Each structure stands twice: as structure tokens, then as C-alpha cells.
Task: structure prediction
Amino acid sequence: MKKLEEKVKRILGDTPQLKILLAFYKEPASFTGMEGLMGMLQKDEETVRKIVDDLCEAGILIEVFTLNRDHPYTKAVFKLFKEIEGEGGREEERRHSLIK
Result:
């Protein structure tokens, strides 16, 4: 999962929004509320509320901390994550075939 994070951050940038999406992707039910997000993001409450509001406004989160898995943006982002995650295995295979 670490490789996925590194690749996604290189592609999309290392943003608090991305960190929240990756956290939901890895463990959808792992949130402990605003305090948990503040700790994970190492941001103050006002900043975290703004980030969450942005994701709610985009339709990716429903209310606070409920991921809208049916939203096309969420599906697209998670599809990208899966493709990037799968690419790591193919990349490894290519390297091994070149070595042989």
C-alpha cells in the first residue's frame, strides 16, 4: 500500500484531500471523527473542516465522514488507485524479465 501512496502522490500531489481519500480507500471504517482527521492530517480543526467541506461539495463525501462510493468521482479516483496499485506488480514483472 505504501507504493500506491507514493505513486498517487507523485501523480496527484500530496494534498490533505488525497490523504483522506487514500485513508478511505485503505480502511473505509477507520475514522474516529474530526479529532482523528486532525491528527492524521496534522491540521487545525478549521482547516480540516474546510477540506471535508470541499470533498462534500464535490459529492465525494456525504455529510461528515461518509464516503459516497456511488459518486462517479469517487469511482474514478478509486479506479485510478487500483490501476496504479496493479501497475506496481507489472512493473516488478518487467524488471525481473529484463534481468533474466
Q: What stands out?
A: The helical segments are 2-12, 16-26, 34-41, 45-57, 72-99. The mean pLDDT is 83. Residues 11 and 33 are 28 Å apart (CA to CA).
